[in-house]
Amino acid sequence: MRNSNRAILQVSNTTMKYLTSSLSTRLIPAVYITVVLVGIPSNAITLWLLFFRTRLAGTSILYINLALSDCLFCIMLSFKIAYHLNGNDWIFGEAMCRAMTVTFYGNMYCSILILMCISISRYLAIVHPFLYRSLEKRRCAIIQCTLVWAIVFLCMLPFSITKQSYYLDALNVSTCHDVQNACETSSGFQFYYYIFLAVFGFLVPLAIIIFCCSSIIRTLSTYDQKWFWYVKMTLLILTIFAVCFTPSNIVLIIHQVKYYYTSADDLYFYYLVTLCLSSLNSCLDPFLYFFMSKINDQSTSYITMFKISRDAQIRCSTE
Q1: Which stretches within the chain are classed as H helix?
Q2: Residue range of the domain that includes 244
Q3: 10 found inside a domain
Q4: Which residues pair with 80 in a beta bridge?
């Protein structure tokens, strides 16, 4: 029996079509199931390798936090899978809906920020090796992770204190973060909040990552071919990362601007689809670690990178 206190909301035909389409009840949950089946074991293996087969250096601590975030997300994603397979009918209550929403967005921006920290760490190690060598890497990594989790926690507070589930009388279902409250959107807070998330949670970190990668390429591209291959693989993984998050954040900005000024929500359908795409990051992150961390020869790799970067700086200072 439905909770009489559950908010009832009228939605547009576009949203109604999405909620009743096979896309939202079949394809999207199929993608989420794939993410869970790949993400949980791969992130669990990553954590095991990091704890028992790798020295807990600065970068390892960053990877541990990334894997923990992905594991939590994949576990919570099971509730969202049940929701979609149940005809977009949320049966777990308002509190669980808020927790699911916080976890979904929190994982996205937590992953982006940690990947940014990893890119900065690599940038310092290769482009500024003397500065990097003087840093207390474990302490810096712990501070970075603490700041990331604190920032994500504060940014997710609006999701945790605002209503996320709405009962749709026409479909006799209770949705979870799949419909918008026009009153909340017209107030302006939701508009500025989402724009803030997209700009400072995605665009700014992406710009920093691109800068770090381009600087690394300039430093290593003139050296041994194996290092250039290493750079190309880094770019490949970061490209996959950008593909996962770029669609949802760009569509989010466009949709919020259009909805705020014209009250048209025809893009919301596409936004929810791109959010599904963003979840793929949770099963791609472990492969980033497997390809890039050099578990079996990590110390040798860092020493070699230090020597190459040192030689490059010495050569530049003598020219």
Answers
A1: 13-20, 22, 28-52, 58-85, 94-127, 129-134, 137-161, 182-186, 189-198, 204-220, 225-262, 268-278, 281-292, 298-318
A2: 22-313
A3: no
A4: none
Residue 7 lies in a domain: no
Q: Is residue 138 part of a domain?
A: yes
- Report the alpha-carbon distance of residue 269 to residue 197 in Å, rounded: 19
In a domain, 224, yes or no: yes
**Which of these, 228, 232, 239, 229, lies nearest to 206 by C-alpha position?**
239
- Which segments of 128-203 does DSSP mark as H helices, in order? 129-134, 137-161, 182-186, 189-198
Q: What is the pTM of this model?
A: 0.85
CATH number of the structural domain spanning residue 34: 1.20.1070.10
Residue pair 308/221 in contact by the 8 Å Cβ criterion: no
Residue 133 Cα distances to 51, 69, 91, 129, angstroms = 23, 28, 53, 6
- Per residue in 232-274, pLDDT (tens digit) is 667 766 777 778 899 889 988 888 888 778 777 777 778 888 8
126 Cβ contact list (under 8 Å, min separation 6) = 215, 216, 219, 220, 305, 308, 309
Work out how many domains the chain is built from and give that number. Answer: 1
Cα–Cα distance measured from residue 227 to residue 233, given in angstroms and rounded to the nearest whole number: 10
Express each pLDDT in 9-58 by its tens digit: 566 677 777 788 888 889 999 999 999 999 999 999 988 888 887 777 77
What is the C-alpha to C-alpha distance for residues 286 and 277, in angstroms, rounded to an integer? 17
- Residue among 284, 272, 304, 294 at smallest CA distance from 19: 272
